[in-house]
Design goal:
5 helices
Amino acid sequence: MADSATLAKPAGKEAASDKPTYVSLLGLAPAQAHAQELLAQAQAALAASGLADTRALAALADMVVNRSY
């Protein structure tokens, strides 16, 4: 688990308030796999979008999914 400064919110806030998260529902490895699947879908949608330059959006999606705490 990351610290509160990295998360920009109190660490463990969801667990303390019994808020469901992908990790609490699926487990860490399945939640990470699901995030990677969604990232691949997002990148495919960007590639098929016909937009002139999707590099920034693709990089943002990658950063959100693959950030490290």
